[in-house]
Design brief:
This protein is of the alpha/beta class. The chain has helices at 2-34, 40-51, 98-101, 141-144, 155-159, 186-194, 216-221, 240-246, 286-294, 310-317, 321-337, 419-422, 431-451, 472-477, 497-502, 531-534, 541-551, 564-575, 606-610, and strands at 145-147, 167-169, 172-174, 206-210, 227-232, 251-253, 268-274, 295-304, 341-346, 349-353, 462-465, 483-489, 506-510, 523-529, 552-563, 579-585, 594-601. Among the domains are: 177-354, Vaccinia Virus protein VP39 (Rossmann fold); 411-601, Rossmann fold, CATH 3.40.50.150. GO terms for molecular function: methyltransferase activity.
Length: 611
């Protein structure tokens, strides 16, 4: 027993000595590293330097996740660098490509609609910027001037010289604000409209300009705080939509043809056509019925140019009085069928208002081909054929009630609870969740601004949100310096685009497996929230990222929120596309599974790739 007691004492003493020794060693090691003499700081500084993004110098954090500690083979596959496309693809628009368009029928402008390439014809290369490309002028100077090198097409300066669309002066294009129907300038034209329409009172916030030219009307309506969605086809009037976006004005490539416009019903306060060459009197009034679908109750439709004012201008239009008279009679007839009320016709401009509800004016049946539409879904419009029918409005209790709810004037409209939320017509959303969403995105945007301090300086004018939800990202950024194209994916579980418009914002539906209806290099910043998780089993990440690269300007910025395993895949592809990237923690901390990928597209042009 004495021997065992001695051995136990010896063992205990040895344990105490070992523990004391280890504690002393780690204490001294920690003090050495803290003093700066150790290598830990040098390693950390080297990592920080390697991951620093030159264009965004304020990035000062590291991600706590990397490919090495992720499950499966998330980061193991190698991505070969993408090569530049040939210089001939500088202005490539995949779904409006001219050669493919000419193989489709010309009836109802079908050949000018979207016709996307099959997978075997897709380009898996990077669209180059033209030689000499420079950053656009900042707003508001950009409204009036565009660098020639960015859109090197002079045809409109010749074709529309008398109409004051655009002039070529030295190395820039100048936009004096004229249009086919308002050669003296959009400002005077808007004054005429404002004598009838309450444009300056905030009651008209969202407008649709059909056949917009270079979007001078939309550009000058911004002075009245009116946000206009302008569209025109990619046709013989070369680059008109490209000019609009280069000026910093919302626009997309589109046409009123055979398929429905990519918007839900009841979203625009005003629709406008100024000599837009749309055959309003044809197709049993189908085009006017489509305008009726997207106009809000009480909204305004403006038509200027032929046939309005035919008694005075018929000689200049080189058409007979009888032809023009019959065309206007048909337009007036369809307007009556739709229960529109004409409120003005003066100086070649006619203005109608849409009915407040169906109770105030029951649908007339004079048109044998045009009854009520069978509205199974208000948002089911993507690639759906336009119909000769009248879209019914939500039910009301009295003839004075606005169908779908009365909206606040802007800017109160931006954060007022939208009627589609209060009446429960958007599944899964309530007043409480709407307020929570606003607060959440205020927090997100505040965190973005800490990282990219250029976000609200006017450096980024044209911004796209690829999965806009309730539009709270755009609402948090609202400023005269920026506008946001709020996109709702066609595969989203719930359509919220109607809510976005009720907030006084604009946007459209789109399927991100296809090319967007815009020219290359038309957006300064692209924001993506859960897009890649949403499309994970729908199409290749490369397809989406290459499209993002196509529509983003050189030195433009990207912000992608998604799950970390998804983002690591995305980052590997992005690095193969000449993007500078930085994977960052969620502002809530490193243990939140959602992360943010910040990226900047590097500057390069066709000139540099060919040398």
């Amino acid at each position: 027993m004495a021997r065992n007691l001695t051995e136990n004492r010896t063992r205990n003493t040895l344990i105490v000595i070992v523990v004391f020794g280890l504690c002393s060693f780690f204490y001294l090691l920690g003090a050495w590293q803290k003093s700066g003499s150790g290598g830990g700081d040098r390693i950390q500084n080297w990592v920080n330097e390697q991951t620093k993004c030159a264009q965004l110098p304020n990035l000062s954090f590291e991600t706590h996740h990397s490919a090495s500690n992720l499950p499966n083979d998330t980061g193991s596959s190698k991505i070969e660098p993408f090569k530049p496309c040939d210089e001939q693809y500088t202005d490539y628009t995949p779904c409006e490509e001219q050669k493919r368009a000419m193989t489709f029928p010309r009836d109802n402008m079908i050949y000018r609609e979207r016709h996307c390439p099959p997978d075997k014809e897709k380009l898996y290369c990077l669209i180059p910027a033209p030689k000499g490309y420079v950053a656009p002028f900042r707003w508001p100077k950009g409204r009036d001037f565009v660098p020639y090198a960015n859109v090197p097409h002079k045809s409109l300066t010749v074709e529309k010289a008398i109409q004051n669309w655009v002039h070529y002066e030295g190395n820039v294009f100048r936009f004096p604000g004229g249009g086919t129907q308002f050669p003296q300038g959009a400002d005077k034209y808007i004054e005429q409209l404002a004598s009838v329409i309450p444009i300056a009172e905030g009651k008209v916030r969202t407008a649709l300009d059909t056949g917009c030219g270079v979007a001078s009307l939309g550009a000058y309506l911004l002075n009245k705080n009116v946000l206009t969605m302008s569209f025109a086809p990619r046709d013989n009037h070369e680059a008109q939509v490209q000019f609009a976006l280069e000026r910093g004005v919302p626009a997309y490539i589109g046409v009123l043809g055979s398929i429905k416009l990519p918007f839900p019903s009841r979203v625009f306060d005003m629709a406008h056509c100024s000599r837009c060459l749309i055959p309003w009197s044809g197709n049993d009034g189908m085009y006017m019925m489509e305008v009726d679908r997207v106009l809000r109750p009480g909204g305004f439709w403006v038509l200027s140019g032929p046939p309005i004012g035919w008694k005075i201008h018929y000689k200049g239009w080189q058409r007979s009085k009888e032809d023009l008279r019959n065309e206007q009679r048909k337009i007036e007839h369809f307007a009556q069928l739709l229960c529109w009320k004409k409120v003005s016709e003066k100086d070649g401009i006619a203005i109608w208002t849409k009915r407040l509800n169906d109770k105030s004016c029951s649908m007339k049946q004079d048109n044998p081909n045009g009854g009520k539409c069978d509205l199974t879904s208000d948002s089911d419009v993507w690639y759906k054929k336009m119909e000769v029918c009248m879209t019914p409005l939500p039910e009301v209790n009295s003839v004075d009630e606005v169908a779908g709810g009365q909206l606040e004037p802007f800017p109160k409209r931006l954060y007022a609870v939208p009627p589609r939320i209060t009446d429960g017509s958007v599944p899964g959303f309530s007043v409480e969740s709407y307020e929570e969403d606003n607060n959440l995105w205020r927090k997100h945007v505040k965190a973005y601004k800490k990282i990219n301090n250029l976000l609200d300086t006017g450096r980024y004018r044209n911004i796209m949100d690829m999965n806009a939800g309730l539009g709270s990202f755009a609402a948090a950024l609202e400023s005269p310096k920026v506008w946001v194209m709020n996109v709702i994916p066609t595969i989203a579980n719930t359509s919220t685009l109607g809510v976005i418009y009720e907030r006084g914002l604009i946007g459209m539906y789109h399927d991100w497996c296809e090319g967007f209806s815009t020219y290359p290099r038309t957006y300064d910043l692209i924001h993506s929230n859960d897009i890649f998780s949403l499309y994970q089993n729908k199409c290749q990440f490369e397809d989406i990222l290459l499209e993002m690269d196509r529509i983003l300007r050189p030195e433009g910025a990207i912000i992608i929120r998604d799950k970390v395993d998804v983002l690591v895949k995305v980052e590997k592809i992005a690095n193969a596309m000449r993007w500078k990237t930085r994977l960052a923690d969620h502002e809530g901390g490193p243990h939140v599974p959602e992360k943010i990928l910040f990226a900047v597209k590097q500057y390069w042009t066709a000139e540099k790739t060919s040398s």
